[in-house]
């Protein structure tokens, strides 16, 4: 740490409704001054002329595969990928091996993450080994450092346990983030059930699998008057349920991922497993509904569901596991589809990817206010680049935007006041 002076940037901070050209001073890992012309003789200077300075992104849905599957990713490589994409805070999901269902695993992750290139927050499991058979000691997990609860990777099928977690979480200062899926409806499906799955003769996952799960968890939030966050929304019916619930005053928030607002199940015609994830890519009508929901506030956040797998695992379309990596491309995909498409301003996109998820999780992030943690990105929002999987910073190559030309490139990332990624000339 120490001092660092960023000069001549376009400072874009949705948390302060700030959009101005000026300087930003970092001192001892905090934002010391922001805006206007700043003089600090003993601070190293970064000339950010032509670049945008924004709060570091907060990705509230990431699989780091650590512990237990570090051939796919680990905390250090996952955070390198995060830094390359401008992500300075991640919420790590609990479907590791062993699952994050005990104090020791939570503590081990947090201890290892202290040296990583992004801040790692932990979502602990609601039930033992994600099996919905035994409830975990949620208070102990909170005391160990977990800030959220989820059985992500699968839903909590025992509704009593889900209700108990949702009721306990606010008292513990935690947020339940829910993977909404009816496993009986989804059983055996490999992609969205519809025209493309029938054409390929491949078992599909009906939209109803997600919709039924979403309806249940919204009903619990309404009945017990507690918050719920709905993960990786992909269907227009789930959006309608969330929109209706918000209109009734239910404390529901939701996220979607870039692949759901940028791509459709037409990609599966390639029979390339890198386009398989869960929930699956849906139809054009669903894609357009995602964009509308981002515009009208039905969706509060954009996350990646970054899910690394080895090339060997992804080599067979029919047998590969679900999941795609996305932290290095998420901001660029948002700029390309949403900002260039005229659907959102860049400030609105940053709000969805930084300010809002930080608020949902209750963490110190998503702002350039004086005194805030010095998590800052410098972005060229006009630069175009083609996604080359061999140049990604994580271990895996299953990038859903591979080979695509995107607009917007993170040039420098600062986390905890330190430069953790620098791609300036």
Blueprint of the fold:
Layout: E1 3-13, E2 18-27, E3 30-34, E4 45-47, E5 52-55, E6 57-62, H1 75-84, E7 87-92, H2 103-113, E8 119-124, H3 138-144, E9 148-149, H4 159-172, E10 175-178, H5 183-186, E11 191-192, H6 195-200, E12 204-205, H7 207-224, E13 228-230, H8 236-247, E14 252-256, H9 258-262, H10 284-296, E15 301-302, H11 330-339, H12 346-361, E16 376-386, E17 405-415, E18 418-422
Parallel strand pairs: 1-4, 1-5, 6-7, 7-8, 8-9, 9-10, 10-13, 11-12, 13-14, 14-15
Antiparallel strand pairs: 1-2, 2-3, 5-16, 16-17, 17-18
Helix pairs in contact: 2-3, 4-7, 7-8, 11-12
Describe this structure in words.
- With 425 residues, this protein is an alpha/beta fold.
- Helices cover 30% and strands 23% of the residues.
- The protein has twelve helices and 18 strands.
- Helix 4 links the parallel strand 9 and strand 10.
- The relative contact order is 0.16.
Biggest sheet architecture: 8 strands, mixed
Give Rg in angstroms.
Answer: 20 Å
Helical content class = 25-40%
Instruction: Please work out how many helical segments DSSP would assign.
Output: 12
Kindly name the structural category: alpha/beta
Instruction: List the uncertain runs.
Output: none
Distance between the termini: 23 Å
Overall pLDDT metric: 98
Into which percentage range does the β-strand content fall? 15-25%
Give the SSE order as H and E letters. Answer: EEEEEEHEHEHEHEHEHEHEHEHHEHHEEE
Apparent shape: globular
Extended strand count: 18
